[in-house]
Amino acid sequence: MNPALIEFPDLLESERLVVRSPKPRDDEELHTAICETFDDLNTWMPWAEELPDISKTRKFVKNKHSAFLGRKDLVFLLSLKGTKIRDRGIGVGRSFRTKGILLNQR
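The chain above was modelled as a monomer; its predicted structure follows.
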């Protein structure tokens, strides 16, 4: 079966929580969250060896948006309504090697 044909919501919402697929408009807010929490990310996340510039974050968001649409990689952005974005990824497929979470509680 073609994974892109699998129906899967790109938005889950409760009274307090929003869980959704990444959109290109999320790049600046996600980049800010990465910068503000980089010391913690660097300790625990293999991808956080160096602070990315905004162009790398934009590319990441565009790639993850496209991968979500094709059901190749399901990355979700989480937020309590009225707060900043958090990131959560679920790898799909044999190449999946890590999972992680970015928390920006400031």
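The chain has one domain: 10-14+16-102.
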